Amino acid sequence: MKIALGSDHRGDEPAAELAGLLREHGHEVQPVGPCDGTSRDYPDEAYLVGTAVASGKADLGVLICGSGNGVCIAANKVPGIRAALACNAETAAMSRKHNNANVLCLSGDGLTRQTINDAVLAWLNAEFEGGRHERRVQKIAAIERGENPADLNAEIKS
């Protein structure tokens, strides 16, 4: 699987370690930034990862900043991106199973390296469950198009 990986300066160290782990698990890692500790604005990295995923150049994306919040907010501005902030393996897996998240966002300051690694592996091993969750993902797409998601209720039932 092709995974776009981005971080700001506060996520560089865990991102570099994560890149190695992902490669060990057979994934192709596409770093979008230098990961060299230089100060960078997290929206830049979030945009690069988001556009790589939305365009199909990457299958999924992972972003790490200090809190994880900044990259999550910024990535969700890219059309077609469903970025989720996870704090452990369980919340990461659920973001794929129920929300079909295509970008995982993590805190470089608030999580241990082991928690980051476990969360990413759990996320990658989870699969979207579809069913009632598909309806909800369709509603997220409606919001992205500027539509009221409740308007889809009749359409989805038919």
What structural class is derived from the secondary structure elements? alpha/beta
The CATH architecture term of the largest domain is 3-Layer(aba) Sandwich
Task: Give the % helix.
Answer: 40-55%
Largest sheet: 5 strands, parallel
**For the record, what CATH class of the largest domain applies?**
Alpha Beta
Distance between the termini: 35 Å
Strand order of the largest sheet: 2-1-3-5-4
Low-pLDDT sequence parts = none
Radius of gyration based on Cα positions: 15 Å
- What is the CATH H-level superfamily of the largest domain? Sugar-phosphate isomerase, RpiB/LacA/LacB
Question: What gross morphology would you assign?
Answer: globular
What is the beta-strand fraction?
Answer: 15-25%
Mean pLDDT: 93
Number of strands: 5
Number of helices: 7
CATH fold node name of the largest domain: Ribose 5-phosphate Isomerase B, Chain: A
Q: Provide the succession of SSEs.
A: EHEHEHEHEHHH
